[in-house]
Amino acid sequence: MVVDVSVMVLSHPQNIKDWEVMDDLQVDVTSGDNPQDLTIPGICEGYLLKRRKWPLKGWHKRYFVLETGILRYSKTQQDITRGKLHGSLDISLAVMSINKKSNRINLDAGDILYHMKVPSATREYRASISKAPNSVVPMNTGRRTTLPAHCPENAHVGLMQILYNNIGKDLSRVSMPAALNEPINLIQRLCEELEYSELLDIANNTQDPYQRMVYIGAFAISGYATAHYRNRYKPFNPLLGETYECLREDKGFRYISEQVCHHPPISACHADSDNFSLWQDQRWKNKFWGKSLEIMPTGIVNVTLPRFGDHYEWNKVVTCVHNVLSQQRYLEHYGEVIIRNLNSNACTCKITFVKSRYWGSDTIKNEVQGTVLDQTGSVIHRFGGLWHEGIFCDTFPTPQCIWKPNPQPKDYYLYYGFSNFALELNELTPGLKPLLPPTDSRLRPDQRMLEDGRVDDCDKFKEEVEDMQRERRKQLAKKGQEHKPRFFKKAVDSSGRDVWLTNGTYWKFRENPGFANTNNLELW
């Protein structure tokens, strides 16, 4: 094919370097020696945006069908079926150029010129999600809907000096002023990932393995949603041996977590219900880049579904806090999540958290795209949207919003950006205290002081608690001993990784003889 460069320049004079001319569009449609023995390729069809000059100048949605080298289009699929065409083009006679950055295609056949653009899946998902009801209608749980005090102002805290004094250090070991904290800690934050556990309930009752994987993918995404509102404060670092339980009869699960290691910091958790079991141990690495802070979790999330014997596992993506030294800081996630079913090779799932672009016309942030692939690598389902707004799947028999976060509570900004679920995490309800071990996070005094608005008292007690932890570590070192977690045990998984698994004793001790009748660590 001979390409006239001057034609291409006239077709798209701006950003010429972003355009690529596709050579040799001819397709050999003959089979064997008989030129009449034609093989018919598959039909490609769907909606694209096509640019018009007159009338109604701009981009308009049109339905295109490509069959045996002929591209036809009309306003709708029904118009194509009825033969009401707006135009057609033999692409073998056209020069094709593409712009991958802007998802644009130009076809130039001399007297006919098509300017086309792929519509953004995110925009379509977003429009669909905005019309969808919430995935779960929020229930009145009878629990608190606010905190005892508003979050403190922390603009005065010299964060710049703290960070620059600790460049190159593991920031998880650096003690921060209480005004930078929120009144929950990392093992409670892991419990937040179960806010939308109903997605796992649905998965366990979904017969089709490909659709089941979509719901597992949606659950993996849902755990990031709350971070959109939580860029001003950091969770407390749990003390070694600190525990947290969450028994949610309304959601049908129970959860236990423990800080099992201090250097490096490792938090382990386990949750179970009639429909699923979930466990993970997470350790975090931090990188401070001067204006941004990257948080890289290195653990693996595991979920089993008893009805089908499935065992899914997946990694987590990078979380980055931008403008970390400014009050205009914001947070994003980026990277790839790969979900595998260890007990079946029927399908895998790939989820991409798209890194924001800070230039160009596409200003959409928090975009996430997912695909479910069969054994051959063919795409069975596509889903996506924005991780803080919802996820839509248009490849189900009935396209639908499969997850949408619950609305934030009133005045959430005054309460650390907490969701209703997060507001309940540290609540000490009547009758619960006698059932908890004294190592439970709800009983941690400095964290409770911050929740009550006593920031100065929190700072003082936080320092005392950390000193007590250092002293316990020194005493163990003198004896040549190491801390032994109470409710989790170290093991090796099928991939040879060190993992922390529940030893199954927490709920047994809670019931009989009760933690008040057992030997407990004194952490504070």
UniProtKB/TrEMBL annotation:
GO MF annotation, one: sterol transfer activity
Pfam families reported in the protein's UniProt record: Oxysterol_BP (PF01237), PH_8 (PF15409)
SUPFAM superfamilies tied to this protein: Oxysterol-binding protein-like, PH domain-like
InterPro entries per record: OSBP_sf, Oxysterol-bd, Oxysterol-bd_CS, PH-like_dom_sf, PH_8, PH_domain
Source superkingdom: Eukaryota
Domain PH, chain residue ranges per copy: 42-136
Keywords for the protein's UniProt record, in alphabetical order: Cell membrane, Cytoplasm, Endoplasmic reticulum, Lipid transport, Lipid-binding, Membrane, Phosphoprotein, Transport
PROSITE patterns: OSBP
Lineage, highest ranks first: Eukaryota, Metazoa, Chordata, Craniata, Vertebrata
GO cellular component, one term: cytosol
BP GO annotations: bile acid biosynthetic process
Localization in the cell: Cell membrane; Cytoplasm, Cytosol; Endoplasmic reticulum membrane
Keyword Endoplasmic reticulum attributed: yes
The keyword Transport belongs to this UniProt entry's keyword annotation: yes
Protein family according to the UniProt entry: Belongs to the OSBP family.
Name of the molecule in the record: Oxysterol-binding protein
PANTHER family in the record: OXYSTEROL-BINDING PROTEIN, OXYSTEROL-BINDING PROTEIN-RELATED
Residues annotated as signal peptide: none
